[in-house]
Amino acid sequence: MTYTDEVMEKVIQRNPGEKEFHQAVKEVLDSLAPVIEKHPEYKKARILERLVEPERQIFFRVPWMDDSGDIQVNRGMRIEFNSAIGPYKGGLRFHPSVYPGIIKFLGFEQIFKNALTGLPMGGGKGGCDFDPKGKSDNEVMRFCQSFMSELFRHIGPNTDVPAGDIGVGGREIGFMYGQYRKLTNRFESVLTGKGLNWGGSLVRPEATGYGATYFAEEMLKARGTDFKGKTVVISGSGNVAQYAVQKVNQLGGKVVTLSDSSGSIYDPAGITGEKWDFIMDLKNVKRGRIKEYAEKYGVQYFEGKRPWTLVDKVDVAMPCATQNELDLEEAKVLVSKGCIAVSEGANMPTTPDAAEYFVENKVSFGPGKAANAGGVATSGLEMCQNHIGLSWTFEEVDKQLHQIMVNIHANAAKAAEKYGQPGNLIVGANIAGFLKVADAMMDQGLI
Known about the structure:
The chain is α/β, with parallel strands linked by helices.
């Protein structure tokens, strides 16, 4: 049994039933074998064992009262994984599916994603099994205030800086920040994704979708082409998908699909102009279903289906919904239809066997920890602006975001080349992120 296999076995024993966490760790460990072989000092210092064990895990109850006067109780958590290169940084997810395995997978991924940005941010993640869907603003406010009444004692601008994720947008960030400020009597950079008029950054809503598209653009450039005239298949219809559509349109591509948990739409004419405006209103204001787009514009709607098999010709695929939404059979269909690049806008949306199939078939594959790092990169830029007390223009932030994504692609490609797997950006991203964190851990001693 190899050293990485031994570490993986311990992870499974210590974290039983947490399949998403197991999947995330295995994907990283499989990439790191040549690094450990070349650098035995990492094995001697047990860097891998220390990386897969969170520095701190915080679990707490969240009692709140609904509009009927009934008391509800949810479980909140924050898992602070690694702070070797900066304060813990990572989102909060409010969704019924939240349990430790999901938060550990996301927090573990965040270590490497944050390292890849080049900004001083460690990795962490948190959330709650609360579902904001169908709740009134007052119910969401009461829940957020109760959640922050416990979390506030564990976070801070130089300790842990949470952000949003699924189920946590500007409304939730505002309610939590207000409670944090009341409890601490401090106005400081402790949450990102804040409102523009009280410390937020321009481009933050667009950042993950823009970043995934910029990363895809770099993969296409490496193949000697660009987005012009390309047919793009995108899943999801939330924040990431919305702005990926906008940026693809700006770069000359044509997005023909979107989806939600109920099904997918296929619009062969492309989701542009007023149709994109309709999506923004439908999802962000009316909180409606994607089926309404099909009804309004007379396009096909596929109940219960994901978009990967719906289109005759595909150039680029961008999974932007949730984990494990693109499987091996769907990957085979995409390759057969001409797909040359996949850029993950969501966290771990492609199953391991599907990702392996893409790499084996010479499809440029941008893993989430690299391709969707634009969100946390812009959160880092928001922190920078807060620290210096300035607000940068949209163009300034977008320019920095673009450069960060270019650098992430270049560093991942360089690491893959150095360790004998040219073009494999999964391996390259894992190695590049790992080396930065591992070296910092070595420098700081056994802690």
